[in-house]
Design goal:
single chain; Rossmann fold; six-stranded parallel sheet; globular
Length: 216
């Protein structure tokens, strides 16, 4: 069974490096592509989907912003399962302060490089505490394309989905500061898990995936 992992905003496949899954699953990583002017989230999702072999059964696994992409892909593809890790599916799950940033446009007046600058606040926000996690996150932020990051923020703040993908599996950390855990998410909770729990609590996440992923 093919699993297509989609990383989060300001992240890449390196955050998945610790996950261990049964050999029945073959892991593939969707690579971010450059965006073009006025590109929509829907059209970008179609563009990324060219990396998926749809002739064989597959499952989409989206982390954070990658979960938004996974939901959009599920609208026109037919995955066996759609998995969201540290992500959201509906507008009502978005914290109020993101709406504030969106409505006021404050984030547009702040240089994007500030968001991509590793510092103590960012490490704590995402849950990168030990030296290895900090170094990994630092490398990923430094490699992130500022133009793509700005485009993705615009798309994220304006996403208004109320559709539930079939065979949806959600995994969310109870200590997530970026997208706080809510009981109405209908997600499997990872106690103490933060936004980067796919790396920091890889054992728990791996076990949940191994037990909950559907076969082909």
């Amino acid at each position: 069974m093919n699993l297509y992992f989609i990383s989060g905003l300001g992240a890449d496949k390196r955050v998945f490096q610790k996950l261990i899954l049964p050999e029945v699953f073959t892991i593939h990583y969707i690579e971010w592509l450059p965006t073009v002017k006025q590109e929509t989230l829907a059209s970008y999702s179609h563009k990324l989907s060219a990396q998926i072999d749809t002739t064989k059964p597959f499952t989409l696994v989206g982390l954070s912003f990658g979960g938004v992409i996974a939901v959009e892909m599920t609208k026109f593809l037919s995955p066996v399962q759609t998995v969201l890790i540290s992500s959201f599916c509906f507008k009502k799950e978005v914290p109020w302060f993101y709406f504030f940033l969106s409505k006021t446009g404050i984030y547009k007046r702040v240089p994007i490089k500030i968001f991509l600058r590793p510092n103590h606040f960012v490490f704590r926000l995402f849950g990168a505490y030990n030296p290895r996690a900090k170094e990994l996150f630092r490398q990923i932020l430094e490699d992130t394309d500022p133009d793509f990051f700005h485009w993705a923020l615009n798309q994220l703040f304006s996403w208004d989905n109320d559709w539930t993908p079939p065979n949806l599996l959600r995994i969310h950390g109870t200590a997530d500061k970026v997208l706080p855990f809510k009981s109405n998410m209908d997600a499997i909770p990872v106690v103490g898990g933060e936004h980067l729990m796919v790396y920091s609590k890889w054992e728990e996440v791996s076990e949940i995936l191994a037990n909950k992923l559907l076969p082909a």
